[in-house]
Backbone:
């Protein structure tokens, strides 16, 4: 989201009229604190996600051949034909 000069000036004038000149610095300070805290949470979440990918990278190898027992089209067709009972064969496929 990009804000141009006119949008920023409009917002400043709007908040100045809405809250008054004496409350505006306190509100800006509070918003800055919340923004900084949100940014810290975002960075921590990114770091945890990155660590998880590095640790489990071998388990998430999608470059190999797909497993042979996964047949979603056949499973859906069989499920529809059997009236919603997916495990008619007993093997769950």
Residues:
């Amino acid at each position: 989201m990009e804000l141009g000069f006119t949008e920023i000036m409009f917002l400043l004038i709007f908040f100045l009229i809405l809250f008054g000149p004496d409350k505006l610095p306190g509100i800006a300070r509070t918003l800055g604190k919340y923004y900084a805290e949100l940014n810290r949470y975002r960075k921590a979440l990114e770091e945890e996600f990155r660590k998880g990918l590095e640790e489990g990278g071998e388990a998430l190898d999608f470059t190999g051949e797909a497993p042979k027992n996964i047949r979603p089209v056949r499973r859906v067709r069989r499920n529809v034909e059997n009236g919603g009972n997916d495990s008619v064969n007993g093997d769950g496929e």
In short: The chain has a mean pLDDT of 79.
